[in-house]
Design a protein that fits this description.
Strand order of the largest sheet of chain A: 6-3-2-10-22
Number of strands of chain A: 25
Strand order of the largest sheet of chain B: 2-1-5-3-4
CATH topology of chain B: Ubiquitin-like (UB roll)
Oligomer: heterodimer
CATH architecture of chain B: Roll
Number of helices of chain B: 2
Helix content of chain B: 10-25%
Order of helices and strands of chain B: EEHEHEE
CATH architecture of the largest domain in chain A: 3-Layer(bba) Sandwich
CATH topology of the largest domain in chain A: FAD/NAD(P)-binding domain
Number of strands of chain B: 5
Largest sheet of chain A: 5 strands, parallel
Structural class of chain A: alpha/beta
Strand content of chain A: 25-35%
Structural class of chain B: alpha+beta
Number of helices of chain A: 8
Helix content of chain A: 10-25%
Largest sheet of chain B: 5 strands, mixed
CATH class of chain B: Alpha Beta
CATH superfamily of chain B: Beta-grasp domain
Largest interface: A-B, 21 and 13 residues
Distance between the termini of chain A: 63 Å
Strand content of chain B: 15-25%
Chain lengths: 350, 106
């Protein structure tokens, strides 16, 4: 059981900055994110895109923004549960929340801050009859254990980096790898495209383009797929079909936590502290909604700051909290580090 | 001078919506649809990276060519047709007066 003061669900910019604001109030945080790395959308969707509306940063790459935030919060030693999706929430007898992930990791804290952005990134699924029937019975959306495909026939679909990368990787493991894509062009690192070209020229992978998958067949387990293009229809026997069409965000399990949801976002009290309809659960950043809401990183930072003040009062109802300026009081990290402005000295110059 | 254009957006239920869009606010079609609370997600914020604003061009307008990013996204998206475009890549200009688009399925 991970015990902390604030469980933050979502390690995007808003969730990360909440660690800093909580740290100033001597509250410890633990972040849960379904992605394997911190940064949320900034890391997953657009790390190389410049952002222009971060105060005092005329231009900053999304990936650099995440790196800077990680540096900024490091003195407060946040914990991370990455690559796991917050699945359930319940209260224990002492009134603390217990958040459990899809992999069974349990976290306990008096406060939960949902900074889930657009939600959990889930694989984009093709629109095919019987697709669900074959999920985990021949259809996989991600490759967790490549050994599973040793000496098997595998069909990968997609035109991006992950389709190319896994085609290259599985070429040495699977009995037969076929890459299919709806176009002739692939969007990926030039190096990967060239490698796949070479594998194809050497007859180590099969390439079928431009085609679309139209049918899946099999009894209990997938046996073949049908691809087609302008009247051409072809059935290919296979053991596995792996569509790699990127990720799409879904609000996910949070939607069933009893929170008030409006237009796919969590309603909060913005005139006060961004608390949801459940006391002790806050929602900050893109995941929340209120009249006039703007989904901007800078608004998320503001919300995180106010949320931490309220969380402090909730955890320590008898303690007075006074706003302190870091320019005056500096930063004391949980790791023993100390940052503060240089003290001026008074010394006569003779 | 009036800087607005009137465009028609057909939603996923087939209902037509006439929208008045400014051309001097650097807005794109996805943003205009969101401003009118039409069911367009604009998940990626307008970076041609999610196709949640995909629509079908139903009028005869000559739109600017697709960028590489838009081409690439449409090559991966679902329900793509010959006349598919990403709303976020269509910038509001006077030339779009009378534009008609239909929202692609989600």
């Amino acid at each position: 059981m991970v015990k902390t003061d604030i469980i933050i669900i979502g390690a995007g910019p808003t969730g990360l900055f909440a660690v800093f604001e909580a740290g100033l109030l001597k509250l410890k945080c633990h972040l849960i994110d379904s992605l394997p790395i911190p940064g949320g959308q900034c890391a997953e969707i657009y790390p190389k895109k410049p952002i222009y509306d971060i105060p005092s940063q005329p231009e900053i790459l999304a990936g650099d923004l995440v790196d800077n935030l990680m540096k900024q919060i490091s003195p407060f030693q946040p914990g991370f549960t990455l690559g796991e999706c917050a699945q359930t929430i319940e209260k224990n007898s002492s009134g603390d929340f217990i958040v459990t992930t899809d992999k069974g990791t349990k976290h306990q804290a008096p406060i939960v801050a949902i900074a889930g952005g657009l939600g959990t990134f889930e694989p984009r699924k093709p629109n095919l009859v019987d697709l669900e029937k074959f999920e985990n019975h021949g259809v996989d959306y991600m490759i967790k254990d490549p050994e599973k495909y040793r000496n098997k026939k595998v069909i990968i679909a997609g035109g991006g980096d992950s389709a190319l990368d896994w085609t290259i990787f599985l070429a040495n493991i699977a009995k037969e790898v076929t890459l299919i894509h709806r176009r002739d062009e692939f969007r990926g690192a030039l190096d990967s495209v060239e490698k796949v070209q070479k594998l194809k020229d050497d007859n180590k992978v099969k390439l079928i383009t431009p085609v679309e998958v139209t049918e899946l067949h099999g009894q209990d387990f997938l046996e073949s797929i049908v691809v087609s293009n302008e009247g051409m229809i072809k059935t290919i026997t296979t053991d596995y079909f792996i569509p790699l069409f990127g990720l799409t965000p879904k609000l996910g399990p949070i939607a069933g936590w009893g929170l008030e949801i409006e237009k796919n976002a969590i309603k909060v009290n913005n005139s006060l502290d961004y608390q949801t309809n459940i006391p002790g659960i806050y929602a900050i950043g893109d995941v929340n909604t209120y009249p006039g809401k703007l989904k901007l990183i800078l608004c998320g930072f503001h919300e995180a700051t106010l949320m931490c003040q309220s969380a402090f009062q909730m955890i320590y109802p008898d303690k007075k909290n006074i706003l302190k300026y870091t320019t005056v009081s500096g930063i004391s990290g949980f790791d023993g580090s100390r940052k503060e402005a240089k003290k001026s000295t008074i010394k006569a110059i003779k | 001078m009036n800087q607005d254009v009137t465009i028609t957006v057909i939603d996923r239920e087939g209902k037509s919506h006439e929208l008045i869009a400014p051309t001097d606010m650097a807005m794109n079609l996805m943003e205009v649809c969101k401003a009118y609370e039409l069911p367009v997600e604009g998940t990626c914020g307008g970076m041609a990276m999610c196709a949640s604003c995909q629509c079908y061009l139903e009028s005869e307008h000559d739109l600017p060519e697709k960028s590489d990013d838009e081409e690439a996204m449409l090559s991966e998206a679902f329900h793509v047709k010959e006349n598919s475009r990403l709303g976020c890549q269509i910038h509001m200009s006077k030339a779009l007066e009378g534009l008609t688009v239909e929202l692609a399925p989600e």
